[in-house]
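Hello support,

Our group uses your service weekly, and this is the first time we've seen a run hang past the timeout. The protein is Ribulokinase. I'm not sure whether the cause is the sequence or the server load. Input pasted verbatim:
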Amino acid sequence: MNLADSYVIGVDYGTLSGRAVVVRVSDGTELADAAYPYPHAVLTDALPDGGPQLPPEWALQVPRDYVQVLQHAVPEAVRKAGIDPARVVGLATDFTACTMVPVTADGVPLCEQPRFANRPHAYVKLWRHHAAQAQADRINELATERGEPWLSRYGGLISSEWEFAKGLQVLEEDPEVYAAMEHWVEAADWIVWQLTGSYVRNACTAGYKGIYQDGRYPSADFLAALNPDFAGFVTDKLEHRIGQLGDSAGTLSAQAAAWTGLPEGIAVAVGNVDAHVTAPAAKAVEPGQMVAIMGTSTCHVMSAEGPADVPGMCGAVDGGIVDGLWGFEAGQSGVGDIFGWFVRTCVPPAYVSAAAERGLDVHQYLTEVASRQAIGEHGLLALDWHSGNRSVLVDHELSGVFVGQTLATKPEDMYRALLEATAFGTRVIVEAFRDSGVPVRELTVAGGLLKNRLLMQIYCDVLNMPISVIASEQGPALGSAIHAAVAAGAYPDIRTAAEAMGNVQRNAYLPDPENARAYQQLFEEYRTLHDYFGRGGNNVMHRLKAMRRAAVAGRTTSPIGVSS
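Update from on-call engineer: The timeout came from a worker crash unrelated to the input. Re-ran successfully.
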């Protein structure tokens, strides 16, 4: 293979859109990219076309939106790159996780069947679908009671975002959909199935989201204790052949070649998660190199020589990022989503007008105004739990908090306090790793939020450590392209490909000692609030969520499984 004349495509499936990037195999140069927003975005209020209303904490998607990314973004990126499609030798995808698709035996999503078109449980459950918290609580209680050995690999708690909790919710709330579901498939694997015609389960989501440890899932006996009808969940719905990261899952089918304009028969890599696939793009494939992929949420991934019990982690998986090392994952359920919520709902028209007069968007304007403040000047402290807490508390019943607001508080004060809160949340995660014997020696940031220089400097000062940044605006897509190159045989393994194709700017931000000292004081206050509301000092957030659900349920005229 002539690497100089060969190209690969990486496709990154995010929360709201899919992005494709064309990458040169020899050196990782990105020639062009293109994005395609999902037509249905995220379903949080109701199903499409006048379908039934959804309860709180639901987040669904329409799977055909994912196929349209292949039909639009991939050919557009190739066109913009100006390359001959015949020179593309491989394709790889990554996905948000845990995002689950209930399908038939041949991979057809249940929501595409007329009889299930108005049944919410027949749709894709997006990663931030948190309505399975009650099922997650029962899984955790039973696993703790029984001393299940796999529980410690997940920091002692299983998330409501993951495969088992969501699957149990389907069974208990719509048994008919559950019975019709022949495969419970990660979207990361479903899209590869559409590309190749073959279903291969990827090792990453199996380990991190599917409780697959030491070659097995939780036992049928454990599942039956949760619900007798759940005993066969693994064997009947979930278990499947597992492909290793960087391997080929198959080749591009004729149908997918027609969608994308790429040559039929090129290699398609085993699926992967958007966060984990970014580590090679950041050249962070050695122990102690953490990558924080900062977008709507933040995922923190890193590798270590061996397993360790880290409280509240999303998993420790052998080969979960690169072969030969244990991959760790942690995360924050809301980061960019929180900033977006604030701008949508809490900014007065005068600020919107002022931003427009300056030719700035509201985020840029608030950042500029907030950057003039001294640390602590706004007098505020916030908890970044507007979408729950993924790590280290693993509790999606938690919610956001502002402390210190007065009649003098301004939008830029609150905006900066939210920026700082997410930095404090990341520090809690970094310290949990360190205290468990898995030190973080380098932090590299990827994702759309690295464009905000104030945010990056706040993180640097709060963590009191240098921050490197990935030198790509499409980190996950570049990481997928690296996996595509390995699957196509251009490189022998992910480490070799990462060294040739990855792109990182080391120590792009350095901590200011005075700022670090000031933030230490605020962080200590944050930890006090964090532990008070998050570790049982006051469970008011849980009670408020329960009251909200009860109030909404009082207005519901039909059960969620069946449309009225």
